[in-house]
Write a structure and sequence with these properties.
single chain, 83 residues, Arc Repressor Mutant, subunit A, three-stranded mixed beta sheet, 10% strand
Length: 83
């Protein structure tokens, strides 16, 4: 199993992409999009098929980010890397 800190390193923020919202590995794929797809019932396999640049660890990273945001009770407390 990949360590949470290692997973969260896949989540970045770039003020030039989606206004600085959390994104995956500097790509134009937001954490919000992946979490929304999962919430709508899409499976990880379906998401990976639809977004071939994503890796399984990216989906795990989105879930780890969601957990960190909830556990810390504030989004401001969740640190992401800057590009």
């Amino acid at each position: 199993m990949v360590a949470i800190r290692e997973l969260l390193s896949r989540i970045t923020a770039d003020s030039k992409i989606f206004g600085g919202k959390p994104i995956i590995r500097g790509m134009r794929i937001s954490v919000e999009l992946v979490l929304s797809l999962l919430a709508q019932g899409e499976s990880a396999a379906e998401i990976l098929d639809d977004y071939p640049d994503l890796e399984a660890e990216d989906i795990q990273a989105c879930l780890a980010y969601r957990h960190a945001a909830i556990a810390l009770d504030t989004l401001a407390a969740v640190q992401v890397g800057e590009r």
